[in-house]
């Protein structure tokens, strides 16, 4: 199973995690903006405003990564997170239910009954 390793230096490692998560959220926002543009639900003014805001957010994130010197750590974390998502998707059966892991004990049946 893939794990995510946070750097040894606490503040820098935490900054890298936060920036990586914000980058992922920004990617999702960009995909949603493109979907809405293609569907015609945004006016030209909204498209321009949205584009400016997303560009500003991206520039701010890049500046923060450079100032905090976490570029490489963020890239590594993004790769680790991508691997975690891929692993999770591979563990889902075709019927949409997670596969069992063979674990036993209280956490193996979280949210269910103890039968």
SSE layout:
Layout: H1 10-39, H2 44-68, H3 71-90
Helix pairs in contact: 1-2, 1-3
InterPro entries: GvpK (IPR007805)
Coiled coil: 47-74
Family: Belongs to the gas vesicle GvpK family.
Number of domains: 1
Helix content: 55-70%
Instruction: Enumerate the spans where pLDDT stays under 50 for 5 or more consecutive residues.
Output: 103-115
Total number of helices: 3
What is the residue-mean pLDDT, rounded to a whole number? 79
Strand proportion: under 5%
Structural class label: mainly alpha
Instruction: Supply Rg.
Output: 19 Å
Strand segment tally: 0
How is the biggest beta sheet arranged?
Answer: none
Cα distance spanning the termini: 28 Å
Secondary-structure element pattern, one letter each: HHH
Shape: flat
């Amino acid at each position: 199973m893939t794990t995510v390793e946070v750097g040894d230096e606490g503040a820098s490692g935490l900054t890298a995690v936060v920036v990586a998560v914000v980058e992922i959220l920004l990617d999702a926002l960009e995909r949603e903006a493109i979907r809405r543009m293609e569907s015609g639900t945004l006016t030209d003014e909204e498209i321009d405003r949205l584009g400016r805001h997303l560009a500003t957010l991206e520039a701010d994130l890049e500046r923060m990564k450079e100032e905090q010197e976490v570029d490489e750590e963020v890239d590594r974390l993004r790769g680790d997170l991508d691997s975690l998502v891929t692993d999770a998707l591979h563990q889902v059966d075709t019927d949409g239910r997670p596969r069992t892991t063979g674990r036993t004990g209280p956490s193996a049946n979280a949210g269910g009954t103890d039968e």
